[in-house]
Amino acid sequence: FLGLSKNAFIAAAPVGRFSTSPRTWTPPRARGDVSTATQVWKKPSDIWVEPTLPQDLVEEAAKEGFRLRPKYSYMKIGYVISDKNKKTRVAHVEYFLFNAKYGAYYKRSKKFHYHDEYETSKLGDVVLIAPSRKVSQMKHYRLIEVVKKHTAPVRV
What we know:
With 156 residues, the chain is of the alpha+beta class. It has helices at 6-12, 28-31, 34-37, 55-64; strands at residues 76-85, 88-99, 104-115, 126-131, 141-148.
C-alpha cells in the first residue's frame, strides 16, 4: 500500500485509528475511510522532528552569553538544586528521549552529584558538568563551568 510494508503502516498509525493486530488489519480504502485513504503514513524512523526552542529564549541566551546545549554529548547542563555539602553539589538535568513507536519526544530528568572543588556554584545556578573519575560513592561528575548565575530566589 503506497510503497510501505504492512508492518510499517501499522507501527506509524496513531493510537485508536487502526487495529495494531496484523490479523484484523485492513487498509483504509477497504473500510471506506476516505479521510485517511489519501494520507501517507511514514515510519517513525523516516520522520525527523527538529526540537525547537522559542526564538526569544534563544536571543536572550545569546545576549547573556550562555549556551543552551552542551558542547559535547557526554557533558550535561542542569541547575543546582542543593549546595548543602562541602565541595559537593546536586544538579537537576532534563533531557529528551525519542519513542520510536509513537514518533514523539518525551522529557525525563535526573539528579547528578558532582564535585565542585572551589565551591563556585550556588543554588539555582545553571552549570555544565562532565564525567570524571569516581570521587565518592555518589560523585562521578565534576564542574566544568558555571554557565549562568542565578539572581532570583529559586523554588525547589
